[in-house]
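Supplementary notes (optional reading)

For those who missed the lab, this is the record we used. Protein: Rhamnogalacturonan acetylesterase. Length: 249 residues.
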Amino acid sequence: MKLRTTISLFSIIALISCNTPKPKDVSIYIAGDSTAQGYDTTRTVMRGWAQMLPKFLDEHVTVVNKAKAGRSTKSFIAEDRWQGIIDSIKPDDYVIIQFGHNDASSKPERHASYPDYKNNLLKMISEAQAKQANPILATSIVMRTFNGRSLVDDRLLGYPAIMRQLADSLNIPLIDTYVKTRDMIIMMGDEPSKELYMWIPAGVDSIRPNGSQDDTHLQTPGAMAVAEIVAKEIKKQNLKNIADHVVIR
């Protein structure tokens, strides 16, 4: 009787195992600029947040980081970097689209007017959806600019607002990195928040041997903090096929 019960129990367990769907392997592509791109860890202490994102995801999610320094929606498309993502992306994959810093630039090869910025984002969204992939819009990270005790960042102008409005009107997931990093920096304050950005003395970084006081680009603590913000938003918004694979330690 005991043997029969044991066999029946094993049969039930085997049946449940057979009927349990296996996790779907998914890729998250990153279309963005220098704040997200990956850096050579042997040459610089600078890090992009997407470089750190895999630390918050399990083995079923692969981050394909195509972000590149100096790129705006305009230049990312013009250089066929966006086309490279579209050529590779598969149904059910995701693409996080984060631009704004360089769209606001006065350099003609980078600058995108508000209407052009919106149209470029619409192109990316529609082409990703045509491949049955899932676009996620992300506002740019805040530029750490203090005036006394107040954080003042007007260099991103209306680009974060356009990103929010577009996500809302199209019912597309939005990660409001700008607001969340702004709040984080405000709570930390001027001096403590420098450790997140490229505020480094001379002799620390081979690319910037004289040191830097950079309020835009991140060191490891900053990149980790932003990556965690992104991962938590994926979890909070319960995004299909990836939310269950977020790992927050």
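If you only remember one thing from this example: The domain at 24-245 is CATH 3.40.50.1110 (Rossmann fold).
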